[in-house]
Structures are given as structure tokens and as C-alpha cells.
Amino acid sequence: MKRAFAPLLLSLSVFFSGMAAAQEAELPPLEEATMEEDPIFAAFKAVERYFRETQSLKAGFVQHAPSGEITSGMVYMARPGRIRFDYAGDVPFLVVADGEALNLIDYEVGQVTRWPIDDTPLRLLLGRDVDLARLGAQVQAAPGGDERIVAVHARDENRPELGTITIFFERRAGEPDTLTLKGWLVKDAQAQETYVELVDAILNPELEKKLWTFEDPRGLSKRRRTR
């Protein structure tokens, strides 16, 4: 099995792979959208509404690593600061953000690697703040000319080593101001891209607190290193 999971924490398929080109386009800054009839202004207000109304999420996911390896599983999210990626099959990894740090748990070698959430691109997804303008995010109302899609792109100009994230939403049919989170594309400082696509997302489910914990594999025998 290719070990393509370390880039996930530094960079963590979008809705469809053709959308990747949209990340390269210059996205108009939020401050330029000042009128309600402006489609970009309407799009970023819809995104802020989504974050404001979404406290938790449960979904299937498909992840495309920079190596081309494809994995899948279940993802759970609770804002602020909590996310869990449970990989299906025999993948010996677990990714858990516990409200303070993002943890990569490698049960094969018995190792835990931690990053502060604010030092990862996922801070846009997991943060308490929904003020996209303050976060320096940019919005595109119809990337690739697809009117169904809204994209949000974020990059910390002062810390380029953190990489970039582009989050993709789909407008709900008949309710253009209501969005569904479809996935995200993350590019790290080495231009390595990781794509995550969400499947059958459920909004605001009740999630057990134990999801944000994990068995620490350090010190366990290899025989006992299971998730």
C-alpha cells in the first residue's frame, strides 16, 4: 500500500476532477462584492449562512491522494475544531481533530503526529468564525461556468507553507441560496493536491463525543495496534 497520507495533514476528489482548474483562476476578493444583486455577494452570503447553520456533519468520503491512490470511508465533523476520518478496509490510519489539534494516527508503526488546527487548511472548515472576509477567503459563484457550484478559496498570505484550500458547494435545486457541501481540494506548499469528495452528507446529526478520541498506539504491541 502506498503511504500517501502524510500530505493529508499538511494539505488535506472535489466534486469532480474538472473543477480543479477553477482553483487556478483568480477569484474576486469578497470586498469587491458590495451589492445584493452581485452573484458573488449572493454566493458568499449563502456560504456564510451554510457555516452559520451547520454545527455538525456526517458523510461518506472518497479521497484522492497526490500519488493517485484512492481511499474511502466515513467522515464526521463538529464545529468548531472537530473532525474524524474513518478509513474503510485495512487502511491502518485514523485522522482525528479533537478541538485543539489535528492528529494523524498510524497504527502500523505506532505513531501519532499532531498539528494545531490553525496551522492546517482545514481551519476554514472547522473554525468558529464564519466571517469569510476576515479570513481572507475568496468566492467564485460559478467556477468552470457551472451555475450549480459555488467555490470558496482560502490562502494565508503570511504563511504560504500552509498551502491552500478550495471548498466546493452545490446549490440545492429550486433553492439557489441553500448550499450542500460537496468536497474540497487542498494544495500544499509543494503543489501536491489532495481531493476529498463527500457522499450522502447528513447535516447536524447528533455525534458521540468518543468520535474525537482515539486509542494511542504508542507503546502498544504491533499485535494490538487496531483502530
How does this model look, in words?
This protein has helices at 6-11, 20-24, 39-53, 123-126; strands spanning 56-64, 70-78, 82-87, 93-98, 101-106, 111-116, 138-140, 149-155, 164-172, 175-187, 193-203. By secondary structure, it is mostly beta strands. It has a single domain (9-198), classed as Lipoprotein localisation LolA/LolB/LppX (outer membrane lipoprotein receptor (LolB), chain A), CATH 2.50.20.10. It has an eleven-stranded antiparallel sheet. Strand 3 and strand 4 (93-98) form a beta hairpin. The two termini are 18 Å apart. This is Outer membrane lipoprotein carrier protein LolA.
Largest pleated sheet: 11 strands, antiparallel
CATH class: Mainly Beta
Shape: globular
Mean pLDDT: 81
Protein name: Outer membrane lipoprotein carrier protein LolA
InterPro entries: LolA/LolB/LppX (IPR029046), OM_lipoprot_carrier_LolA-like (IPR004564)
Keywords: Lipoprotein, Signal
Organism: Gimibacter soli
What structural keywords apply?
11-stranded antiparallel sheet; outer membrane lipoprotein receptor (LolB), chain A; lipoprotein; OM_lipoprot_carrier_LolA-like; globular; signal
In a few lines, what is going on in this structure?
This protein has 227 residues and is mainly beta. It has helices spanning 6-11, 20-24, 39-53, 123-126, and strands at residues 56-64, 70-78, 82-87, 93-98, 101-106, 111-116, 138-140, 149-155, 164-172, 175-187, 193-203.
